[in-house]
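Q: What structure does this chain adopt?
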Amino acid sequence: MEVLPEGPDDAPESVRPEFVDQRPSPEDSCWRRERKELLSKAVNRLSSAIRRAILLRTFEERTAEETAQILGTSVSAVKARLFHARRKLRRTLNRKRTVLAVFAKCE
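A:
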């Protein structure tokens, strides 16, 4: 009977890295999809001014100056919008995480 290694340090030397499945597990894939969906919904619930600032700055990786120019506002206003966007997203996502943890315990 062959015993499977318990961890990466216990793997036999004959296992070649190209034969090791590097893809995320089904659970990880599901969790990533769920997190992406939750984030997308949370971003879409933001006011348009705040949403545009967070999308330009975070997802399009624009500078604060570029974001301000595109939005026709000051850099200070962009920074304030980002602060409010991140705070709202953090609150929303923390609430969702709490709810998901409760449901996970029920299964």
